[in-house]
Model the fold of this input.
Amino acid sequence: MRLRRATRYRFLALTAVLALVLAACGDGRDDDDSSAGGGDDNGESEDGAGDGFEIDTVNCGVDPGTVEITGGTIKFGTSLPQSGTYAAFSSILRGQQAYIDYLNAEKGGVDIGGTKYQIELVAKDDAYAAEQTFSNVQSLVDDDDVFGLFNVVGTKNNLAIRDYVNETCVPNLLAATGSPAWGNPEYPWLLGTFLVPYPLEMVAFVDYLENQKADATIAVLRADDDFGQSYSETLKALIADTELTIVDEQGYDPETGEVASQVTSLAATNADAFVLGATLLACPTALNEVAASGWQPITYMSGTCTSKTLMTIAGASGDAVLSVTPLMDPNDPQWADNDAMVLYKEKVAQYAPADTDVGNGIVAYGWTAAAALEELLSRVEDPTRLGVMQAARTLSDVSGIGLQLPDSTWSVGEDDWFLGENFDLVQYVAADGFFMVAGERLDLPGETEEITPENLING
Amino acid sequence: MSPRVRLVVALVAAVAGVYVFGYWVAQQNAPSDVRLFTQALYVGIAATGLNILTGYNGQVSIGHGAFFGLGAYTSAILVSEHGWNFVPTIPVAMALCFVVGALIGFPALRVKGLYLALVTLGLAVLFPDLTDRFVNGTGGTNLVTLRGAEVAVPDWYVWFPDPIADFFDEWVGAQDQWAYYLTLVLALVLLLGVFLIARSRFGRSLIAVRDHEAAAETVGIDLARVKVTAFALSALYAGTAGSLSVLVNRLANAGKVETFQLSIEFLVAVVVGGAATVFGPMLGAFIVVFLRDRIDNQDSLSDLFSDPNRAKLLSPALFGIALIILMYVLPDGIVGGSRRLVRRLGRRSRRAPAPASPLTS
Done:
C-alpha cells in the first residue's frame, strides 16, 4: 500500500520509538541460588582473621567465605547521583576513578597477600533516589557480579540497601555519608566512610564555642531530614551541661534549598553563634543571607560543604566560617609541597577528564576514598567477601593515605565503627579561598558512639 | 476491517500476549529485567486509574504520586511494623486509598481545570511532609525498608500435590517472578475493571460529565457522585500500584521531587498511550519506563563526551525530547493513533476495489 509521505514518517518515528523499547529484550535467565530470595542456611560462624569482631554468616544467602576474588581483577560496584539535583556529587567518581586508574597503571593494582589485583569499578546513576539505588545494587550484584560495593552515596540510599546487603552478605565499603546510623551493630556488612560523623562535628564546635564564649546563645538552621537532625539532636545533648543555649531552631526543606525566611527569623535573634546543618547549595545561600542581614555570629557549617565550588558561591560571606575536615584542602598553600598533595594533583591531571578541578573537595574526597579502599584491601588476609569484611571491621591505624591529614590515624573500634574521628577544625579564609586549620588536631576515637543519642544509631 | 480479519488479529494478539507476558517475561529474562517489566506494570496500573479520572472524566490530577505513596507506606508499615503477610496488605491499601480519594474528591468538586491541577499538586507536595512527621522510618528518615524475608515468595503452593507444587516453584519460585506474576494478575483484573466501566452506564456518565457538565446534569446524572467516585477509583488504582512497588523496591519512600515526578510520570503514560482508552495508559507506562531505562543506560552516549558523567546529565533531556517527538507524531497517544490508522486502512480498502486483471483470472 502506498502511504502519504507524512504518514510514512509517522510510522518511522513510531517504529523507532518502539524499537528502543524492545531493545530491552531479555538476556536469558540464570536461575542459580544466589539470585533467589530465600537462600539456604549455609554457613557456620566463621572465625574472623582480625581480633575482636566476628561476623555471623549463618543467615547469608550464599556463604561469603566461598565468594572469592577470581582472575586478576576485583570488581566493585557503586551507585551515586550522576544526574538530577545532587549531580554535583558525581565528581566523587572523577577522583576515585583517577586513583584506580593510577593504581592499576603504575602500581600494577592492589597487593593482597603477595598477589596483585587490578580494581575495576562499575558505576550506576541513581539520581539520589533510594529506590533506584536499590535497583542498581541488585543489578550490580546479580548481573554484574561485583565482588562488593564501594562508596555508595547518600544516607537514605545506603539505608535502602542495608538490609539487602546484610542478607546477601556483600561488603558495602566506605558508604559515603557521615550518618551515625552506620554504627548499628546489626549491620556488619556496611562500613561507613572516613567523613567526620555529623554528631562529632558538634563536639568540635561546642568545644570551640565554650572556649570563645561560654554562655553563648546559638541559633540553628538545619535540613528537615535525618542529616539535619543529627546536628540538632547531638547539639542539644552536648550543651545540656553547659551554659550554652539554643535560642531558635529552624528547619529547611532539603529538596528546595530555600533558606531565606528561616535565616531572617534566626538573624532577628541576634544570637552569638550560628550552626548551619545544611548541605550543597543551601550552605552558601544561607551564608549569603546571613551576611546580607548584617548579623555576625560565630558560624559553624557542616563538613559536607567544605568544597571550593560552594565556597566560591558564598564568596566573602564565607569568611571565618568554621567547619571540619579529615583531609588536606587542595587550595591550602601550607600543603602545596606535601608529597601526597603533589601526587594527587599530578595524577588527577593525568588520569581524570580534562576539565576536572583539582581544587574541588569532592574530587579530593573521591581520590582519598579509593586510596582507603586500596589500603583496606591490602590488609585482607583471606581474599573472600567474608575476609574483606572482617578486615574492614578491624581496620586500624590507617594513615598517610590519599589526602589524609598528616599525623592522623583512622581506626574502626570494636564498639565504635566510625572511621573519621581524627580531624581538624578549620576556618575559611575568603580572601585566599581555602580552609585554614583553626586549633589543635582533634582526636576523638570512640566519641561518636558515646555522644550520639542512641536512637540515631540504632533507629 | 472485516469481522473475520478482526477476529484473527485479536486471536493472534491474545496468543502472543499470553506467550510474552505469561511465559517469556518471567522465564526468559534476568531478574533485573523482570523487575523492569513489573515496574512498567504497576506504573501502568496507576496510569490506568488516573485515566479514569483524567481521560474519561476530565479532572486533571498531578497529585496521584501521593496515593501511590499512601499505598506503598500502608503495605510497608503493615508488613514491617505489624508483621502482616504481604498479600493481605494489598486490599487494605486499596480500601484506604479509595476512602482518602473520596475525601479528596469532595473538595475537588469546587475547583476545575488548572485550579484542580494546582490543588492536586499541593497534595503531591504535602504527602512527603506528612510522612516526615508521622512515619518512624529507618535511620531517622521517612524511609521504611523491608527485609528480604518480608517480601519473599509465600509458599502457598505447598497445599497443592507435588507435581503442581514443583511446577509453581519453577515458574514463580524466584522473588522477582513472584512479584511479576502477582502484579500481572492484579493488572489484568484492574484492566478488566476499566473495560467494564468504560462500557457501563457509569462510564458513559463519566464521559458525559467530562464533555458537558450542564447537559449531563439535566439528563439526571449526579455530578458529585460521579466525580467523587472517579477520584476514589483512581486513588484505589494508584494505591494498588504503590503497594505492589514495595514488592519490587523493598521500601516505601516519599520526597517532594520523587512524589511529584511519579505524578507526572502517570500523566505522561496516560497521554502517550492514549487518554480515554482501556489499554492506552498501560502501553504508555511501558513506553515511559522502558524508554527511560534505555536512555539512562545508553553507554554509547558516553563516547560523545570525554567525561561519562556529562552523558548521564543529558539523559532526562533526551527522554523529554523522545516524548516530544512521540506526541508530535501521535497527538492522541499510541492507541488513539493506531485507531486512526486502522480506520484509515479500512476506508482505503473499501474505496479501492481490486481491478480485474487478465493475469489473475
